[in-house]
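Quick question, first post here. What does this chain look like in 3D?
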Amino acid sequence: MADNKSLEIRKEAVVTPEGSERTRECTCFIPRSDIYENDDQLVIVMDIPGVDEGSIDVTVERDILTVNAYVKPAAMEGYEMIYSEYETGDYQRSFKLSGEIDRNKIEAAAKDGVLRLYLPKSAEYQTRKIGVKAT
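> Answer (accepted):
Ran it through. Tokens below.
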């Protein structure tokens, strides 16, 4: 995949889009992701622990695919937190898409804190076998 330019990972120190501010007062993580590819599509597998399926927003604007996932803080009723080692927060990550990706057919599925994004390649960029005829 070293030569493939279907997807460029947008690495930023700040996880909010340029010129914007977060409106939620909590930590925001850049989720770890793995990217797989075959002849037909790319699949992004992203860890977003603590997020339910209804709290995930996946958007495509121009050539940027953005994932926002929001964690609903859990508190033990009747108790006050006095010590914590586990940090919770929201997740945000953006990817720059090339023209090879069919933006209208992108799909997403989430289960058990793992988000899978399916990015099909446009038909013109998919590998196809060309038959050879005997002459």
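The mean pLDDT is 83.
The chain is about 0% helix and 35% strand.
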